[in-house]
Amino acid sequence: MAEIVIIYTSETGMTKQYAKWISKELDSDCLVLEEVKAEEFLHADLIVFGAGIRAGRMRKLKSFHSKMNKSGWSGPVVYFATGGAPYDEQTVRAIVANSFHSSETSSVPFHYFESGLNFEKMKIRSRAIMRVYKMIMDGKKEKSEAAMGTRQALNGSYDHSSPDYIRPLIKDVHKRINV
After folding, report:
1. Digit-coded pLDDT (tens) for 60-96
2. What is the DSSP string of 99-161?
3. 8 A C-beta contact, residue 105 and residue 75
4. Is the pTM for the entire model greater than 0.85?
5. Are 121 and 12 in contact (CB under 8 A)?
6. pLDDT tens readout for residues 97-113
7. Are 104 and 170 part of one and the same domain?
8. What's the distance, Cα to Cα, between the start and end of the chain in Å?
9. For the residues of 47-90, what is the DSSP string, one character each?
10. pLDDT tens across 28-60, in order?
11. Between vectors from CA 116 to CA 56 and to CA 81, what angle results, nearest 5°?
């Protein structure tokens, strides 16, 4: 059976929850990016990397790639990101375009999972960024459903996470390891 390792980074715990659900479903190790050592994942046949979204891109992706490159590991990676925005293709395309090199955007195995916002667990910098973003959104005259939903979401903490959202990623991983 193929060896799969889940590596994640999580500021508020929402990405951690998804990583745990994925790890359980795939019966795999689940490691925190900030604590992981190369020898802990060199045995992997495939890595799943997950992170939250900040400013429209995956957090700590460069750090993950740096650790991976330093280790010499060059196997396949399936990526996932979590964020407060509801899932839609336009959101996913924007995250991929902002996170990966243009030569990778059409081929990178990427999955997005709606989670939420947890202001209480956010670091001070993140809370400040969210306050500024809320002020920008409040100043816009746009009345679209998406804009109204974003304004409402920025009013407080919420969690829309669901283990059901990981099904496409699990299917993708199984396909890649021929299960």
Report:
1. 999 999 999 888 888 999 999 998 878 888 888 999 9
2. HS-TTTTTT--EEEEE-EE-TTTS-HHHHHHHHHHHHHHHH-----HHHHHHHHHTTS-EE--
3. no
4. no
5. yes
6. 999 998 888 889 999 99
7. yes
8. 9
9. EEEEEEEETTEETTHHHHHHHHHHHT----EEEEEEESSPP-HH
10. 999 999 999 888 888 899 999 999 987 788 999
11. 45
Domain check: are 139 and 114 in the same one? no
Other CB atoms within a 10 A radius of the CB of residue 65 amount to 12
Task: Say if residue 106 is in the same domain as residue 151.
Answer: no
Distance, CA of 167 to CA of 155 (rounded, Å): 30
**Does residue 79 contact residue 146 with C-beta atoms inside 8 Å?**
no
- Going by C-alpha positions, the residue among 62, 65, 68, 64 that lies closest to residue 42 is 68
If asked whether residues 32 and 101 sit together in one domain, one would say yes
The identity of residue 105, as a single letter, is T
- Enter the tokens of residue 177: 């390891």
Tokens found for residue 100: 């990966």
